[in-house]
Design a protein that fits this description.
With 104 residues, the protein is an alpha+beta fold. The protein is 28% helix and 22% strand. It has three helices and five strands.
Length: 104
């Protein structure tokens, strides 16, 4: 499976995970590696909460999230057992996604 397949299925289901407005809101980036196995289909995103100096809110560091794609419904969610922005490096998130895909 490719990221383009996941995007197309999400769009075809009438969902908006990959919409530019959604991505901009969280300053999201999607990593291209897909981890697919008996445990499911996983990929990694990163998000960075932007600061607002006028409100005294500091910019936050970029963090990574393990996402799971459901081919039946086209949905993309933070993978079960993981938290939004749980990882502080891309490699740690990919290691977790790889393990989740292999889990049965």
């Amino acid at each position: 499976m490719k990221l383009s397949d996941i995007r197309a299925a999400n769009r075809a289901a009438g969902l908006h995970f990959f919409d530019p407005e959604s991505m901009r809101f969280f300053w999201s980036k999607i990593e291209n590696t897909i981890h697919e196995g008996v445990g499911g289909i996983f990929f990694v995103t990163s998000e960075q909460m932007r600061g607002d100096p006028h409100l005294g809110v500091a910019e936050q560091p970029r963090r990574w999230t393990v996402r799971q794609f459901d081919p039946e419904s086209g949905t993309v969610e933070t993978a079960d057992g993981f938290k939004f922005q749980q990882f502080n490096t891309s490699s740690k998130a990919h290691d977790a996604a790889r393990r989740a895909a292999a889990d049965h």
